[in-house]
Design brief:
The chain has 460 residues and is of the alpha/beta class. The protein is 41% helix and 19% strand.
Length: 460
């Protein structure tokens, strides 16, 4: 069971989570728990670190330390019984002192490396786990607070987005499998460590990833991701109020949705679950009786060929064009190579059979880097123009039922045309699980609303 930041935002919610965990333990379930940081703590730590670089004021650091100390002490008093409170506060104070030392050092050095960012980012979870574990113990259930690295999550040194090494799964199994027989381990989400013991993070939202790693390692029956929503929705309810939670979806659909804007699941979160074929359930911490969404290997065929419509904004379209590209071998290879060397991730690709243009979609934050890399690569006249447009959004229609079903694309683009939504670029892989297209940003919400209605998703 993994609990997200909203679920453990403060002491009262931590107490609720402890009671929830106990209720399942009382049923006889063996449980491992993964926790996020208290609400806003990780962001606050990173903000303080950046201010330490620019301002370099030790007095500001002391003010920040006083604030987070107060916040965590309050959480202890709200969720932990007197018999454990003093012990937990002492542990928290020792860790907060480490944060203060690190931030003070940044003030004097004026430098913040990726390795330092990971070190500081890890403290949100490392402060939350002891509180939640003590809250569970307050209810009379054995519990132990552990770090991701401490249980064997060993990663590469790609700070900020570290990936677990294969040896992780055996190591976690050796540590956690015997432990859950008699106690509830509370594990820090989001963090691991290298083989040399240096702290790393799995990327924002990586607590889901941690839960999936632990679940896969111990062969869990299910991996439950507790959030503040009823499950994975047919679309963003802020765009379509009639959006519904999906009872069951496949791994493939969940992955397609996560890569194309659905924020409920971390894009890498279900990768370990897929390796072991373990179902993943998304549930609402504040409505635990609601069944939520179950993500499984293969879903039985249903009448709903489309399951969801997602949208990604804050992206940019880059179009490479020129008559000199026609018949010239290696243009695509040079394009993708230049972007890869510049560290730019490509979200979407489209090329016409004329070969006269090649379009890619990248994150808006990487657009300038991408443009600079491509202009340097194509300075020999093969490419006529390299243009960009940030006033766009990507909309994706997702569903395994689309594969082999005639007329889906016709319905998608026919309904958009009837509602005056212009499509700029289209991409569909041969798996046919996803049709993605680019529209102007100001028409994206309308496109989602039109397609949600076209495929009757409000009735799922």
């Amino acid at each position: 069971m993994k609990f997200g930041g909203t679920s453990v935002a403060d002491g009262k919610k931590l107490k609720h989570v402890a009671e929830l965990v106990k209720s399942y333990r009382d049923r006889g379930d063996r449980i491992a728990v993964v926790t996020s940081a208290l609400g806003g703590i990780t962001d606050a730590i990173l903000k303080a670190a950046n201010e330490a670089i620019s301002a370099g004021k030790v007095s500001q650091v002391k003010e920040f330390i006083a604030d987070i100390t107060k916040q965590h002490h309050k959480a202890v008093h709200e969720s932990v019984g007197e018999e454990f409170a003093e012990e937990v506060i002492a542990e928290l104070d020792a860790r907060i002192e480490e944060i203060e030392k690190a931030l003070t050092g940044i003030c004097y050095l004026g430098e913040l490396t990726p390795r330092s960012i990971d070190y500081l980012s890890s403290y949100g979870e490392r402060l939350a786990a002891p509180i939640l574990s003590a809250s569970i113990r307050t209810l009379g259930v054995e519990s132990q607070s552990l770090t991701g690295g401490g249980i064997g999550i060993i990663t590469d040194d790609n700070y900020g987005a570290a990936h677990p090494l294969d040896l992780t799964y055996a190591a976690v199994k050796r540590y956690i499998a015997p432990l859950i027989e008699n106690t509830i381990p509370v594990i820090t989400g989001f963090i691991g460590e290298t083989e040399h013991g240096t702290i790393t993070t799995l990327g924002r939202g990586g607590s889901d990833f941690t839960a999936s790693i632990v679940g896969a390692a111990i062969g869990a029956d299910e991996i439950w991701l507790w959030k503040e929503v009823h499950g994975i929705m047919t679309t963003d309810p802020k765009i379509v109020p009639e959006a519904r939670p999906l009872p069951v979806i496949s791994y493939i659909e969940a992955m397609e949705m996560s890569f194309f804007g659905a924020k409920v699941l971390h894009p890498k979160a279900i990768e370990p679950a897929i390796r072991q074929g373990i179902p993943v359930r998304v549930k609402n911490t504040f409505d635990p009786d609601y069944p939520g969404t179950l993500v499984v290997k293969d879903e039985k065929t249903s009448d709903n060929i489309v399951k969801a419509v997602t949208v990604v904004d804050k992206v940019a379209l880059i179009n490479i064009s020129g008559a000199g590209m026609v018949g010239t071998i290696g243009v695509a290879a040079r394009t993708f190579g230049a972007l890869a060397n510049a560290g730019v991730n490509i979200k979407m690709i489209s090329q016409g059979s004329s070969e006269a243009n090649l379009s890619t979609v990248v994150d808006e934050s990487q657009m300038k880097i991408a443009m600079r890399a491509l202009k340097q690569e194509f300075n020999n006249g093969v490419v006529g123009e390299i243009e960009h447009d940030v006033n766009i959004a990507v909309v994706a229609v997702v569903g395994v039922g689309m594969a082999g079903t005639p007329g889906v694309a016709g319905r998608v683009f026919g309904s958009l045309g009837e509602n005056s939504v212009n499509v700029i670029m289209i991409s569909q892989g041969s798996s046919q699980h996803n049709i993605s297209f680019v529209v102007k940003k100001d028409t994206a919400a309308k496109a989602v609303q039109v397609l949600h209605k076209e495929f009757g998703l409000e009735k799922l």
